[in-house]
């Protein structure tokens, strides 16, 4: 799992996905929904992503 974050104007947008590319796409879309289309601070490549380990309990 990957967690990606965008931080325009002291606001945080976070999204997660199994693949990093998808997490970047999701956080980009979430940011644009609030900040406006084509916002330069909501670009996928500006997202900070980290790998997240998820443990599933049986």
What are the key terms here?
58 residues, alpha+beta, three-stranded antiparallel beta sheet, elongated
What does this structure look like?
The protein has 58 residues and is an alpha+beta fold. It has one domain. 28% of the residues lie in helices and 24% in strands. The chain has one helix and three strands; from the N terminus they run ββαβ. It has a three-stranded antiparallel beta sheet with strand order 2-1-3, covered by helices on one side. A hairpin with a 6-residue loop joins strand 1 and strand 2. The two termini are 19 Å apart.
Query: How confident is the prediction overall: mean pLDDT?
Result: 92
Largest sheet: 3 strands, antiparallel
H-E string: EEHE
Fraction of residues in helices?
A: 25-40%
Shape: elongated
Give the low-pLDDT segments.
Answer: none
Structural class: alpha+beta
- Beta-strand portion reads 15-25%
Tally of helical runs: 1
Q: How far do the termini sit from each other?
A: 19 Å
Number of strands: 3
Secondary structure layout plus pairing:
Blueprint: E1 2-6, E2 13-17, H1 20-35, E3 48-51
Antiparallel strand pairs: 1-2, 1-3
